[in-house]
Amino acid sequence: MRIEAIAPGDIIKTSIGGRQIYGEVLEITDQRVHFHPITHAAGYRHATARQIIGHWRKAGRRRSAGGEDARPEAQPPDQLALRINQ
Question: For residue 79, what is the DSSP state?
């Protein structure tokens, strides 16, 4: 796997010593990915590109088309009124 696509905050799956370990990426230095394992019983804290077998990118909510300053349109009072007995 290519390390260039991995960023801090992403989730990776590694295969080290016959064990598969999931972890959150902390940093990438010297072609090694340092991560915080999700299971604390795992003794490994870094992996090379060859040891990474899965990668999930951290993604947030998509922004609306208007950007951060966009406000929702005001609804007309007729639409907001709930009339049960007419």
Answer: H
79, part of any domain: no
- Supply 48's token pair: 């090379």
The answer to whether residue 27 sits within a structural domain is: yes
Q: pTM here? A: 0.65
For 2-40, the DSSP string reads -GGG--TT-EEEEEETTEEEEEEEEEEETTEEEEEESST
CATH number, position 51? 2.30.30
In a domain? residue 26 = yes
pLDDT in tens, the chain (86 residues): 789 989 999 999 999 999 999 999 999 999 999 999 998 888 899 999 999 999 999 777 666 665 556 666 777 767 666 666 65
Provide the domain count of the chain: 1
* 12 three-class SS: strand
Domain span at residue 51?
3-58
